[in-house]
């Protein structure tokens, strides 16, 4: 009487064994390296794997290298209201919770972490805990709409962008957009230094801090300005033409230009709809590193800063490069 029962149970046992085996195998097997870099002279060797660290993050922005010598990188999960840390071994942990919707980040030499904040809109220091400080929360009495990215200059000044408002499914009729580019001097004075950029996003300085770069998501070009000793800017120009320029799924024209970074040779890296676009210090297009998901922001990290970390659309990647990032700033 037991033989028919055993015959019926045997396929079930085998199926369960296979299921458990496959689950263990999937959990223990490495993430497949099925995306590779093109060859870009001095930047990437052709065929270098683009390693997926993890997917499923809740908003992915603002990566910067840590200053503790560990080679780790931080990035913001804006929707989760958190800053997340990725260790050199790809270990992921929470660095800071309740960040007021932090987006772009910058460390100074004292280990203070500056952030463009999007919930209660402001720019200021959010870490170490207990030493938080608001640098600005309005301009001439008007609150910022969406502080986006920032870069800290050697003189203590801070450039930051406010990308303004835009219609979304959740808010199809937002207030009129008033995007701008701002400068906070080391003494704390606030100036709006540009109000004619459609949607200012990423902002970065050249290695000698004589040129300021701005990504305009709604334009075909990266913008560049000359920087004076007092932090003021002039000479607005189209610096580089973006391969990411084209129609979005909703039919709008956009380049997707977002985060910016520079390497030790003053090349400019741009996260765009095309991938990570690389330009010479003259604005010449050197190549594009495509990724499985459209990138939002980028940073050099690792103990030798020869690893490019890319975040976007809930995913984080790392890419081994031939060059190193600029050592004069964390980003």
Shape: globular
Mind telling me the C-alpha Rg? 22 Å
Number of domains: 1
Helix content: under 10%
CATH topology: Neuraminidase
Classified in CATH, the superfamily is TolB, C-terminal domain
Name the average pLDDT.
90
C-alpha termini separation: 73 Å
Structural class: mainly beta
In total, the number of strands is: 28
Tell me what the CATH architecture is: 6 Propeller
Would you give an account of this structure?
The chain has 331 residues and is mainly β. The protein has one domain: TolB, C-terminal domain (Neuraminidase, 6 Propeller), CATH 2.120.10. Helices cover 8% and strands 42% of the residues. It has 1 helix and 28 strands. Strands 1-28-27-26 form a 4-stranded antiparallel sheet, with no helix packed on it. A hairpin with a 5-residue loop joins strand 14 and strand 15. The chain is globular and about 50 Å long. It starts with a helix and ends in an 11-residue tail after the last strand. The N terminus is likely disordered.
């Amino acid at each position: 009487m037991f033989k028919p029962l055993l015959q019926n149970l045997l396929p079930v046992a085998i199926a369960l064994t296979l299921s458990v085996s496959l689950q263990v195998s999937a959990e223990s097997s490495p993430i497949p390296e099925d995306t590779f870099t093109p060859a870009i002279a001095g930047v990437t060797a052709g065929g270098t794997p683009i390693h997926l660290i993890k997917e499923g993050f809740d908003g992915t922005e603002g990566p910067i290298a840590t200053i503790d010598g560990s080679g780790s990188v931080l990035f913001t999960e804006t929707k989760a209201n958190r800053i997340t840390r990725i260790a050199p071994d790809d270990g992921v942990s929470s660095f800071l919770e309740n960040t007021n919707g932090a987006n772009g980040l910058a460390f100074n030499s004292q280990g203070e972490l500056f952030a463009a904040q999007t919930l209660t809109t402001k720019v200021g220091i959010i870490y170490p805990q207990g030493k938080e400080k608001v640098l600005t929360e309005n301009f001439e009495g008007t609150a910022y709409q969406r502080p986006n990215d920032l870069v800290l200059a050697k003189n203590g000044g801070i450039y930051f962008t406010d990308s303004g408002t835009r219609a979304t499914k959740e808010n199809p009729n937002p207030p009129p957009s008033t995007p701008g580019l701002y400068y906070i001097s080391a003494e704390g004075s606030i100036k709006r230094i540009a109000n004619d950029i459609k949607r200012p996003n990423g902002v970065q300085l050249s290695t000698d801090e004589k040129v300021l770069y701005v990504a305009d998501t709604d334009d075909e070009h990266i913008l560049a300005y000359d920087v004076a000793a007092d932090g003021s800017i002039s000479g607005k120009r189209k610096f580089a033409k973006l391969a990411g320029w084209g129609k979005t799924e909703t039919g709008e024209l956009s380049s997707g230009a977002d985060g910016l970074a520079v390497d030790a040779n003053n090349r400019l890296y741009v996260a765009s709809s095309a991938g990570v676009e690389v330009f010479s210090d003259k604005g010449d297009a050197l190549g594009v590193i495509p990724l499985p998901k459209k990138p939002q922001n980028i940073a050099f990290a690792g103990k030798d800063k020869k690893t490019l970390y890319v975040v976007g659309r809930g995913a984080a990647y790392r890419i081994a490069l031939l060059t190193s990032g600029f050592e004069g700033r964390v980003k």
